[in-house]
Design a protein that fits this description.
- By secondary structure, the chain is an alpha+beta fold.
- About 30% of the residues lie in helices and about 35% in strands.
- The chain has 3 helices and 9 strands.
- The strands form 3 sheets. The protein has a 5-stranded mixed β-sheet, sandwiched between helices.
- Strand 1 and strand 2 form a beta hairpin.
- The chain starts with a strand and ends in a 5-residue tail after the last strand.
């Protein structure tokens, strides 16, 4: 997991005095492990809430679920556009950025269109992140609402 873990280390000086220190570290997850947690969490949220709510409700609940699983989650993260030396904040926002490794774009639509696929692909290219999900909660069976995207583009 990416939860904080720790070990107690005892140092003894030449004088014979001992000091105890608690050393904390983060266990990093791979993109695939993070992706698996995202899918599991999305299914859990969908089971609890079902289809029919607003995207913002699913975003809040999915972020909560992922944080409870020990993952770092940023909501509505600004994604600027870089053009040469110019950095443009054109109003693009990633719904969720999980562990700084996986982008999650959420929808609550009757029909996901090709423009929504283009949106997640663009976010992956702009951010340099390799893995993203387009998750539509307005489905009767959650597995039908999850689409994984992989960007092999290296900037």
């Amino acid at each position: 997991t990416s939860r904080s873990a720790g070990y107690r280390i005892i140092f003894t000086a030449k004088t014979g005095r001992s000091r105890s220190y608690l050393v904390r570290f983060q266990i990093m997850k791979t993109e695939d492990q993070v992706a698996s947690e995202i899918v599991d969490a999305a299914i859990a949220v969908h089971r609890a809430l079902g289809p029919g709510l607003l995207e913002s409700a699913y975003e809040a609940c999915l972020a909560y679920e992922l944080r409870n699983r020990g993952l770092d989650v940023e909501q509505q993260k600004v994604q600027p556009i870089r053009y040469g030396d110019l950095l443009i904040d054109a109003g693009y926002r990633l719904d969720l950025l999980v562990e700084n490794k996986v982008i999650v774009e959420l929808k609550a639509l009757e029909l996901v269109l090709p423009v929504h696929h283009a949106q997640i692909i663009t976010y992956l290219k702009l951010s340099g992140i390799s893995v993203g999900f387009l998750i539509n909660f307005n489905v009767s069976l959650m597995k039908n609402g999850i689409r994984r995207f992989v960007n092999n583009f290296k900037s």
